[in-house]
């Protein structure tokens, strides 16, 4: 049995064009995620989907029961897949994600999804803190422009800064092509 798992974080309709919180490059990140998911499945790795849902209907995105909160069709969720619903940025916080990983004997996790500067960052750091060996497929992740004190940080710069930080101390960074070739 594989000791690896793929954690697919928040690849949900609201992040895609036409959604309530569109991310820059989400279509390409979604296509890359689909390739990573297919490779992980072919390798026999456990695939776990995370869906973020805010607790109230007046949320800016991922409101409960909405079309926007559903996992996007590009990820191809199957009826027998593990889907974990979270209500916080960190996929481990308030969920059974660690229990699911440990029950499967997982030692290595790969993280993909959205948003690079929030949920990918939090899940990656938490996984490393729990002692898992972590890989992030950087081009299967997406974010959006950020704003700090009136300074706009373009999505590409935000993504690069967060990937750089994660690669420095928390995870190995690979491209979709490299992940698929090695799977």
Please provide a written account of the structure.
The protein is an alpha/beta fold and 183 residues long. It has one domain (4-182): Isochorismatase-like (Rossmann fold). The chain has helices at 26-43, 97-103, 116-129, 155-169, 176-182; strands spanning 4-9, 46-52, 82-86, 108-114, 133-142, 146-148, 151-153, 172-174. The strands form two sheets. It has a six-stranded parallel sheet with strand order 3-2-1-4-5-8. Helix 3 (116-129) runs parallel beside helix 4 (155-169). The longest helix is centred in the N-terminal third of the chain and has 18 residues, at 26-43. It is globular. The protein starts with a strand and ends with a helix. The model has no long low-confidence stretch (mean pLDDT 97).
Structural descriptors:
alpha/beta, Rossmann fold, two-stranded antiparallel sheet, 33% helix
Furnish the topology, listing elements before pairings.
Blueprint: E1 4-9, H1 26-43, E2 46-52, E3 82-86, H2 97-103, E4 108-114, H3 116-129, E5 133-142, E6 146-148, E7 151-153, H4 155-169, E8 172-174, H5 176-182
Parallel strand pairs: 1-2, 1-4, 2-3, 4-5, 5-8
Antiparallel strand pairs: 6-7
